[in-house]
Amino acid sequence: MISNVKNFGLFLIFISTFILFHACKQKPRQRDTKKIAVVISTLNNPWFMVLAESAVKEAESLGHEAKIFDSQNSTALEADHFENAIVSGYDAILFNPTDSDGSISNIQQAKIAGIPVFCMDREVNAKGVATSQILSDSYSGCVAIGKHFVKSLDKKGRYVEIIGMVGDNNTWNRSSGFHSVVDNYPDLIMVAQQSGEFDRNKSMEVMESILQAQPDIDAVFCGNDPMAMGAYQALVAAGLEDKVKVFGFDGASEVITSIQDGKIQATGMQFPELMAKTAAAFADQYFRGEREFPEKTPVSVELVTEENVRFYIEN
């Protein structure tokens, strides 16, 4: 009797194992790990490096694969990256656009292919194309910079504005926010406005050229921190670094240190890690079946000056 019970038990184990084996063979487990493309406008900027690397780190922490693609500020190269992501079977794209209008068609191609696109930091001029856009509140951030600018110059003086890339909405949001304040003071006179293309070397060249025509200036407002550092280099070369006040935007570590050292007046602290983490989290939620996302998610910008810079120094 005992022998029969043992034999029956072994038979049940054999049958259960047989059924489980064939069930797994007939119905393979669905792959949980997804592939995420992180397409960045340019890696020739430390701030965007932080954005890209934070997106990858967060995606990987959520159990997914992620790869960075550098568009080098070219919509054509950006289009190649999107085509590659579509053909290679990527499941989502975390995207920092090169151009507010020129990047729309690339997102549309991904949407047609069923691939969600989550924009980071830079927006595109189209609704319902990107799955969601996570953006710095550049306008409000530059309103705060404008107020500090007015106070620092005691409401009067001649200044230069170096804007970013003409096709980027951030360029005009920042400029508009700044001018919404500064233009109310008639004794603050803008003597030149040129594009530094968000690039340090380009900004230095632009500043050098402007100084030849307008050597008597009191301040420079730059649309990002690399341009602020480029402008500052040009002022140092001209021996004007102690006379001309420089204002930036981004919150780059080099500029934070420069504010502490009294070289740069102020910047707007953005939070690329937060934007990247939010985009990666949204992609993960999409993989889990979520389809309702906010059209835009604004991320606040904080004014950093010599009065509060100690709170932003990395230890």
From TrEMBL:
A cellular-component GO term for this protein: cell envelope
Compartmental location: Cell envelope
Main location, first listed in the record: other
Record InterPro entries: SBP_2_dom
Keywords for the protein's UniProt record, in alphabetical order: Signal
Signal peptide start and end residues: none
Residue ranges constituting the Periplasmic binding protein domain according to the UniProt record: 36-290
Family of the protein in this entry: Belongs to the bacterial solute-binding protein 2 family.
Official protein name in the record: D-ribose ABC transporter substrate-binding protein
Annotated source species: Arthrospiribacter ruber
